[in-house]
Amino acid sequence: MSAEVAVRAAVIAALRADGALMDGLNGLYDGEPGRASAPYGHVGECIGADWGGKDVEGRELRLTIGLRIADETPARLAGLIGRIDPAIGQAQEQDGWRVVSARLVRSRVARDQGKPPAGWRAVIDYRLRAAREG
Questions:
Q1: Which DSSP category does 92 fall into?
Q2: From CA 21, how far away is CA 39, in angstroms rounded?
């Protein structure tokens, strides 16, 4: 299995396993949902590039995680965003790929001007490095 698919699945499983995060969401989706009730989260695009060394097969992945709430203020997003880092740190090996490092690249919080009810959204981009085990 490709590193992109395996690591993405591992991250989704880790996020869903975080009880505090899931208590604050109606759902966590693989990709932007067509119809979902806020608050929800989703794992967006995953872009991969070669990374590794002489004896290590590796991939560097850029992964986007999105959160959406329907509140008038973005205050609740802070707690949800704070759960992402620890959850990603708990990602387990998946199909022979293990996350060896995860770094926040950037995050954005903005007013959601979509269909009512308007609210707030956060987009969090991570750089993950994964190595093939075995």
A1: P
A2: 11
Handedness of CA 81, 77, 111, 68 (dihedral sign): positive
Is residue 77 within 8 Å of residue 68, measured between CB atoms? Answer: no
For the stretch 57-81, what's the b/e string if a residue is b when 16 or more beta carbons lie within 10 angstroms of its beta carbon? ebbbbebbbbbbbeeeebebbeebb
With beta carbons less than 8 A apart as the criterion, state whether 130 and 3 touch.
Answer: yes
Asked whether residue 88 carries a pLDDT value surpassing 90, the answer given is yes
pLDDT of 118 over the 90 cut: no
- Look up residue 94 and give its DSSP letter: B
- Please, what is the Cα angle at 75 between 73 and 79, to 5 degrees? 150
Instruction: Please state the φ and ψ torsions of residue 124, each to the nearest 5 degrees.
Output: -125, 125
Give the whole-angstrom CA distance, residue 112 versus residue 129: 31
DSSP letter, residue 1:
-
Indicate the pTM of the whole model. 0.92
Nearest CA among 90, 97, 104, 107 for reference residue 13: 90
